[in-house]
Write a structure and sequence with these properties.
It is a single chain. This protein is mostly beta strands. It has two domains: 184 residues, no CATH class; 105 residues, no CATH class. 7% of the residues lie in helices and 25% in strands. It contains four helices and 21 strands. Strands 14-15-12-11-17-18-20-19 form an eight-stranded mixed β-sheet, with no helix packed on it. Strands 4-5-9 form a three-stranded antiparallel β-sheet, with no helix packed on it. A two-stranded parallel ribbon has the order 1-16. A hairpin with a 3-residue loop joins β14 and β15. The longest helix is centred in the middle third of the chain and has 7 residues. It is globular and about 70 Å long. The chain starts with 9 loop residues before the first strand and ends with a strand. The N terminus is likely disordered.
């Protein structure tokens, strides 16, 4: 089973020509490498709770810098959210989302849910009514709150978990991006767990939706639950709102005139995030440990991991705003 062919939403502009805001290119004093500043006009206003502003923030390297304050509604204006859980084992792929396992992406259609016991080689999986074919799933905000929880108990065993946009309609998330990215000599590892001081968020899409840390799929599966992503690679929880765990090509992108992969957002350090493959469908083989590389047109920038990897980039090559 493979995931659906997804419609590509692309801006009909490229880099400097896509807005009245002029792209600024500078060079670092030590390396003479091109540094591309963040363009606030790349963001879609429909995904933001307020206009983007510039504030002074301390960066992780201890310096102070101008940063864009981006307050996201976590509601993409460029594509629909959902569906996530199909209703019946007879439903086709259009009625459900996707799931990632072993580096691959699978359609969560009725057949996938029906065959979970075989898929995971564990007869405990039984997420549907054998008489009616109805799939057991969360249907209320209270269910969402209880089931989308690392400590979910046996009450929601064998539930397909989906939280709806209406549950988080007033939630906002604030992201700060350095206006001018600052490359570091040593990459910054992403934070893990509540006591970590480093960020876990990877970056932000042009529609304001966050590229988040890997989904805790092992915890989800250990509770015999399934929390599918929609075709855009996103799902909802009550704390984070709608967020991405995979880049599937459905959010707004900026095409490049030279055949380079399209740009899809910014990492938390302000360096550009680009699709994994070039316009010709080829993989980049010169990426560093962070999944980044340099060219004179785009400066240092990243290429996101494949959709089934539960990952976007591996670390931050630049300083982030605290």
């Amino acid at each position: 089973m493979t995931y659906k062919n997804l419609a590509i939403v692309a801006l009909t502009c490229v880099l400097a020509s896509c807005s009245k805001e002029k792209e600024t290119i500078t060079t670092t004093p030590t390396s003479n490498e091109t540094v591309i500043k963040v363009l606030s006009s790349n963001f879609l206003s429909g995904g933001l709770a307020e206009p983007i502003s510039i504030v002074s923030r301390t960066l992780s390297n201890g310096t102070t810098a101008d940063c864009y304050k981006i307050v996201s509604k976590s509601t993409p204006p460029d594509h629909d959210m959902g569906p996530w859980c199909p209703i019946n084992i007879s439903d086709d792929a259009s009625k459900g989302g996707i799931w990632i396992e072993g580096g691959n992406v699978y359609d969560v259609d009725g057949a996938f849910v029906k065959n979970l016991a075989t898929f995971y080689n564990n007869s405990t999986w039984q997420m549907y009514n054998t008489t009616t074919g109805a799939i057991t799933r969360t249907t209320t905000q209270a269910d969402c709150q209880a089931a989308a929880n690392p400590n979910v108990g046996s009450t929601y065993k064998n539930f397909c978990v989906e939280c709806l946009p209406s549950y988080v309609s007033t939630l906002t998330k604030t992201i700060y991006l350095p206006v001018t990215p600052v490359k570091l000599s040593t990459p910054i590892s992403f934070g893990m767990g509540p006591n970590s001081t480093a960020p876990s968020t990877r970056g932000i899409a042009f529609n304001g939706v966050v590229f988040d840390a890997p989904a805790p799929t092992n915890i989800i599966l250990a509770a015999y639950t399934l929390a599918p992503f929609d075709d855009a690679g996103g799902h909802i929880n009550m704390g984070a709102g709608y967020h991405y765990h995979a880049a599937t090509g459905k959010s707004t992108k900026i095409l490049q005139t030279d055949g380079h992969a399209a740009m899809i957002g910014y990492a938390l350090d302000g360096f550009g995030l680009y699709e994994r493959l070039s316009a010709a469908g080829t993989e980049y083989t010169d990426l560093d440990a962070s999944r980044g590389h340099y060219d004179a047109t785009r400066g240092y920038h990243y290429h996101v991991d494949k959709p089934g990897s539960n990952n976007f980039i591996n670390s931050l090559a630049g300083a982030y705003a605290k």
